[in-house]
Every structure is written in structure tokens, then in C-alpha cells.
Design a protein that fits this description.
Distance between the termini: 46 Å
Number of helices: 7
Largest sheet: 2 strands, antiparallel
Strand order of the largest sheet: 1-4
């Protein structure tokens, strides 16, 4: 009988990344997303007012405050990463809707945890631990704080672009149900 030597300190970090109840930008811009928004308490007007409390940016880096579902839908469908602040805003608004409005299978709990990975050098994301895990609410808060910068135009070569892209990617994976830790229920 061969007995292997005892080993201590090995932590293989068993974590199950599972689907959540996220919905994509496509969902929030189609008739199903519209129905969820208009069916929310207070209707579309209340949801748009709440979204206006976030630091959303448009393609020029200026503030975007949706006044109607039609305006929000148009803004969402126009989002590109030419200005990373715009795409970060779009992904952040979708995860916010997933938490506060929900889809056909319910809402993402505001206590859900996402695996975001390790940020690029110089990027600090509040609530992100050393293993790359972050609460979804902390990630929204970090993204929103990043977008509060009045110079929110985040194009190639800007100092904030790589950090905003890191947060955008984590939110996008959450909206696509790829990086929730365990079941978010």
C-alpha cells in the first residue's frame, strides 16, 4: 500500500458558476422587456425615473435620462463600445432592470454574487475581492461611480476605458447568466 504524503493548504476553490435570472439588452429592448417595464409598479414612467437616477451616458459621453420606454429602447439599441461609458451604461441599466423589474422567471436578487475575474492593472472596483468575486449591487455602484465622472467619454486610449470595459464584461456575463455564483435564489 502506498500512502501519499499529507498535504495542507490546498484550496481548489470549488465554485459553481450558474445561471441566474438575468435578461440581456435584447430582452429589455423587445416586446417582452417592454411588457415587464410597463407592468412594473408605477409603470414605465416610474422605471424611467429610477433609471434616470443612474449616471447613464450616451454615445457622446453626455448624461442620458430616459423619459419614455421608446427613448430608452432607442438608446439601448444604439449602444456601442466606441465609447465604453455608453456600453457600460447599457449593461448596467440591464442588470439594474433584472434586479428591480425582473423578467418572466423573476428578479435577480440584489444579494447575488458574480465572478468578474481579476481587474486590469490600475483598476479598482469597490466590493471586488482578491479572487474576482463581487456582489451585483457593489458592481452596479462601482460602475455608476465610474460613470459619474463628467468626462465620462471613455474611448480607446483613455485611462478609464480598461476598467469600464472590465465592469461592462462582468455585467454583460451576468445579463447573459454566465457568471452568477451558485444559484442566485
Amino acid at each position: 500500500i502506498v500512502v501519499p504524503p499529507n498535504s495542507t493548504g490546498n484550496n481548489f476553490g470549488n465554485v459553481c458558476l450558474a445561471g441566474g435570472k438575468g435578461r440581456t439588452l435584447g430582452f429589455w429592448s423587445n416586446k417582452n422587456g417592454q411588457a415587464a417595464i410597463t407592468g412594473a409598479p408605477g409603470g414605465a414612467s416610474a422605471v424611467m425615473t429610477s433609471l434616470s437616477n443612474l449616471n447613464l451616458r450616451n454615445g457622446a459621453g453626455a448624461d442620458f435620462n430616459p423619459t419614455s420606454y421608446a427613448a430608452f429602447r432607442s438608446w439601448l439599441l444604439g449602444a456601442t463600445a466606441n465609447n465604453m461609458a455608453y456600453m457600460l451604461s447599457a449593461q448596467m441599466s440591464a442588470i439594474w432592470l433584472n434586479i428591480n423589474v425582473g423578467g418572466p422567471v423573476g428578479k435577480v436578487p440584489d444579494t447575488a454574487v458574480l465572478y468578474a475575474g481579476i481587474p486590469p492593472a490600475g483598476c479598482t472596483v469597490g466590493g471586488l475581492n482578491g479572487y474576482g468575486f463581487v456582489g451585483v449591487t457593489a458592481l452596479i455602484n462601482a460602475a455608476n461611480a465610474s460613470l459619474a465622472n463628467p468626462n465620462g467619454y471613455s474611448v480607446a486610449g483613455s485611462a478609464m476605458r480598461s476598467c469600464q470595459e472590465f465592469m461592462k464584461n462582468a455585467l454583460d456575463r451576468g445579463n447573459n447568466n454566465l457568471n452568477f455564483v451558485g444559484s442566485p435564489d
